Batch of 2 targets.
Target 1
Amino acid sequence: SYKRFLREFRFENAEEYKVKDEIKADIFAAGDHVDTTAISKGKGFQGAVKKNGQHRGPMAHGSKFHRHQGSNGSSSDPSRVFKGKGMPGHMGSEKITVQNLEIVRVDADKNLILVKGAVPGPRKGLVTIKETTRADI
């Protein structure tokens, strides 16, 4: 039958599965540690204070830079802005992986996995769950 989301995964025991087989939630167990990957929530165009955590200017009446950036670079010696400098711009809507999250419970009947921690993306969004690549921290 047609499925909206179709993904390919690499795994060790590939002989057990055929093409287009569904992989259910019961391959995980409570207490396992997993990595979750999804597209983060989009935040639109954000300034340097929110996007990069830069400090703001004074908020008093005489100040003319409340939430603006300070200096971007030197004047004479490099005479340029260094690559990677935090600037205002689009924030969010990018692929994020949160590592080493713990599975609290697996409901095989409803095909649900309860994960403890910060799972990226919006509610009802598509999340890829894999065994963790990091050791227990």
Target 2
Amino acid sequence: MSKQQPASTHTSVAAILVINCGSSSVKFSLIQPESGASLLSGLAECLNTPQALIKIKHNIGVDNDKKIETSALVAPFDHQAALNTLVNKLVQLNLVDNIVAVGHRVVHGGEHYAQPTLIDPSVKKNIENLAKLAPLHNPANLIGINVCQQAFETLPQVVVFDTAFHQSMPEKAFLYGIPYKLYQEHSIRRYGFHGKSHYFVANQAAKFINKPLEQCNLISAHLGNGSSVTVIKNGRSVDTSMGMTPLAGVIMGTRSGDIDASIIFHLVEKLGFSVEEVNTLLNKKSGLLGLSELSNDCRTLETAMLDKSHPQSTQAKLALTVFCYRIAKSIASFSASLSELDGLIFTGGIGENSSWVRQEIINQLGLLNFYINKEKNQATRFGSSGNIAINTSRSCWVIATNEEWVIAEQTAQLLKLNTAEEL
């Protein structure tokens, strides 16, 4: 992958339609795989509610200026309605003929898939069966697949799995300390997520240090509302903080991350929680939100922390301090997987934009020879990338991730499409 280029205004270029269906949203982008340029992108959110709306951004037209169009969705306000609106817009802008394939993000591929895969009935059945491991995401991913297969009957469709990059983990990293037959019979193990993001930024870091990815040893911290740390040895994931589900690992926006499993028994047996209430507590009411009792948004917490008159200032700082400590602790522990380390990567919404969080984490990693350049750290935000460490430190990069580009590129590679040529 080279540096992302601006979108071409020539509407005859071949492109991949990338679809990412979440539990209540649909992200989409029409991407030229060679350059990473987007002809059209957008987001449908608040699905399955009357507030559902869709935003579509493109620069197709006489003036070639970037346009953002927002419209409410029609009943039943669901994924189908969102994707139908997208298809209609693609027709209106004469972009349908540009689409040579559709690439779908699917959260959980279990142990079945270590590579992008062409969709067929057996693949769809496996995605459905794996919904037990990703109940909020895999069913929604399937909706996107089914709608796009109806809308683009003649186009090849490919799935790219979040878990695929981590299928290179050895048993010592992915097994839990529970009876082995639970892994053999029920596939209970660590899978890991954010695989496309970790893969993308590792590739970019390899370019920074002018080494093949296969020779790079890195630790990647994807920090956002969902956060994970991955250790990359010789270009391959060998361990990661998330587990069988995205609940495990470091503290996140609303997720607890790792806790003593006996807390669950205590909540149920002593405090009267139902299993569903515990699930909701750990996934949606914990993390930064639970600790701060204010917000899951790092920006809101930083603002409150710095405003000493804010009633939640102290608690906001506590939440952020715990968040940063757990991430630093995870990074330090993962260094045991490597005999050498080329550098550390920050990515994701928080990792790319919060200079305070990055500094707080790096300040705890002096033993690994990470030392921050405060001026570079402050300047590297809002999509910019670069090394924020001092000259005598190990490298520490901020790299803006682009998971959609990974999906488009891997879809084109699987299908052996020459998307550099005009149609």
